Amino acid sequence: MDKERKDMLKDAAILFIITLVAGFLLGFVYDVTKDPIAQQKEKAKLEASRMVFADAADFAPYEGYSADDASALITAAGISGADIDEAMQAYDGSGNLLGYVITVTDHDGYGGDIQFSMGVALDGTLNGISLLGISETAGLGMKAGDVLVPQFNDKKVDLFTYTKTGSADDSEIDAISGATITTRAIVNGVNAGLEYFRERLLQ
User: Fold this and answer.
1) Which distant-in-sequence residues (6+ apart) come within 8 Å of 157 by Cβ?
2) Is 110 inside a domain boundary?
3) Is pTM beyond 0.85 here?
4) Is residue 186 part of a domain?
């Protein structure tokens, strides 16, 4: 019995040591990688901002941004499933405000969250959108970058809808064949960003 107890204690000690070492290694890896990961995310965000606001020379955070305020505005407009993650001001080389870059996450994609940046000029024209994160079905929803993104370029509308029969005007987006959920999520997210722009950023 004593030997069994000793073996149990020995096994427990070994397991404890393994757990301790594993925890230490995980913490070490996290500390080593967190800054490079954060830098990569910032780089991707800056590149996305430049894609949707090619005329801008500089970007700065919109100081009036509040996640709670943004959520309340979107909800009041009857838009659900999307969050306004951030708003940046876009400036030209002389320091003049050109418009805003709004980062949106829609939570109703087929494969989960779809995050993108959208550039909106001061007159309400949507310069375009740039995908930051998407995990949709290969060959279907993952076509969003090629099929959906170009359709938003240089459009000035209050609200986008999607259609399966071919767009008739600027407010209609042609859905990806076989990926209506992805289309609906991105259109919904863009509408959320436009609503936030009109209610909070429009001057």
Assistant:
1) 126, 170, 171
2) yes
3) no
4) yes
Q: What DSSP state is assigned to residue 135? A: -
* Nearest-angstrom CA–CA distance, 149 and 140: 14
Residue 122's SS3 state is coil
Confirm whether 90 is domain-assigned. yes
Is 8 domain-assigned? no
The domain tally of the chain equals 1
Q: pLDDT tens track of the chain, all 203 residues?
A: 566 666 677 777 788 788 878 777 777 666 666 566 556 667 777 888 999 999 999 999 999 999 999 999 999 999 999 999 999 999 999 999 999 999 999 999 888 899 999 999 999 999 999 999 887 666 666 778 888 999 999 999 999 999 998 888 999 999 988 889 999 999 999 999 999 999 999 86
Other beta carbons within 10 Å of 181 = 18
Look at the block and give the residue holding tokens 């965000």: 45
Element holding 103 (H helix, E strand) = strand 97-109
* Phi, psi of 93, deg, nearest 5: -65, -20
Answer for the pair 162, 173: CB distance below 8 angstroms, yes or no.
Answer: yes
Q: Which amino acid appears at position 38 of this protein?
A: A
| CA-based radius of gyration for the chain | 23
